[in-house]
Amino acid sequence: MEYVTDPAAAMSRLAAADRFGEYVMYEQPGSWVFAADPLGSVELDAGELRTVWNGQTTTRAWTGSPATAVDAALAGLPLDGRNAYGWLGFEFCAYSLSATRYLNPLTPLAHLMIPRIEVRIDATGVRISGATPGEACDIHDLIADSQHTELPVAHPVDVRTDPTGYPDRVAAAVAEIRAGDYQKVILSRKVQLPFAVDVPATYRLGRANNTPARSFLLRLGGLEAAGFSPELVASVDDDRVVTTEPLAGTRAFGLGAAADEAARAELLADPKEIVEHAISVQTSFAEITAVAVPGTPAVSDFMAVRERGSVQHLASTVRGTLAADRTAWDALEMLFPSVTASGIPKREGVDSVFRNDRDPRGLYSGAVVCVSATGALEATLVLRAIYQTGEGAWLRAGAGIVGQSRPEREFEETCEKLGSVAPYVVKA
Question: In which domain, by residue range, is 317 found?
């Protein structure tokens, strides 16, 4: 097997080649997969469920839980041991958190596809499944070629312009928190880009300058996106262990050793950041407890500091064993959206997001999802990402608002987070 020294370059090249149709690329620690040319798909909107297989589309209304609807739709396809890949929009949460009044029937909730071709790269080399011999030869050639190409040139983006009135929206949320309406909310702002973006090239350059927990690159259903996820929303492994990794509390990173160490010390001593993190862990623990075998939920690495590109965060890990009467999709629905991207309590926090964020979030603070043939599932939080449709390209970032928040500091935090992607945007 060939040895690949730069998997990100290989994945970017496969995506840019544009000869394998729609795709989802997903990086886990030590392993990369490029899944392409869908045999079928499951698309869920607020108004309907569409399943596609072998070119035939079935459309029907759905009721109840979106997680149950997607799980059942996947189970109804002749997957024959294949995996599924795709994304959930933030609005997927509206059903479990009583916010459906904010949706219209066309609001996209989920899009998963079942690939014909999978290309995996890990320490053992390259493995290709589902491709014809000719395609496999092309794939090997593209990967080999990718290892000798220079990094693309960036077209940096100004992230300090803010037509969204972010500080005023933060002030309004602080007033609601101080009035006792809820404890925390994550409010975000969108930065529209004035040009079309080369998303695979942006992924490659961004990945060379980020330290994500997971990363992704996709083109699916008219949406292109690439991102450097700081945390897991949920994973359920083959041993039915459920894991989530709440990150809350942020300072800049990458400004030099002395500045980074000072920011780290400030982060670990800041009462606002500590409170924000502790209540996020408390919420995640309660959510895992609701779907786990009693006595199995536990917190580890409490309040560790993890560097994620241009920022550093307080981080913890929460795990439990999934109860026998619960599915991986039940666990995902309980943990989604990430507490660190919504609010506390979640129901009131999500209501505040829908009211105060104004623009629908879509993939921002949703999840990229991988579902294995064995039923294992992983959903990574979509932050530190770039998005593009036929209508344009944009970035988006948010900050956790609590009663002690200052609008100017929260705006600065969005700039720090946008710094994980904005300097590495490549113009089409």
Answer: 7-424
- Token pair, residue 55, equals 């070119």
Spatial contact of 331 and 96, defined as CB atoms under 8 Å apart: no
What's the first-to-final CA gap in the chain, in angstroms?
Answer: 33
231 catalytic? Reply is yes
H or E stretch including 146? helix 133-146
What CATH number should be reported for the domain holding residue 256? 3.60.120.10
On average, the pLDDT of the chain sits at: 94
Whole-angstrom Cα distance, residue 40 to residue 84?
Answer: 9
Question: How many domains would you assign to the chain?
Answer: 1
Which of 246, 243, 229 lies closest to 304 in space, CA to CA?
246
| Single-letter amino acid code for the residue at 352 | S
What is the DSSP track for 8-59? Answer: HHHHHHHHHH--S-SEEEEEETTEEEEEEEEEEEEEEESS-EEEEETTEEEE
- The catalytic position among 22, 118, 231, 287 is 231
Q: What is the reported pTM? A: 0.94
pLDDT digits (tens, 9 = 90+) for 166-177: 999 999 999 999
Q: Are 95 and 65 in contact (CB under 8 A)?
A: yes
Distant-in-sequence, close-in-space partners of 409: CB < 8 Å, separation ≥ 6 = none
Residue 226 · residue 216 · CB < 8 Å: yes
> Please, what's the b/e burial string for 270-302 (b: 16 or more CB within 10 A of its CB; e: otherwise)?
beebbbbbbbbbebbbebbbebbeeebbebeee
For residue 1, tell me if it sits in a domain: no
- The pair of structure tokens assigned to 258 is 């002395």
pLDDT at 1: 54
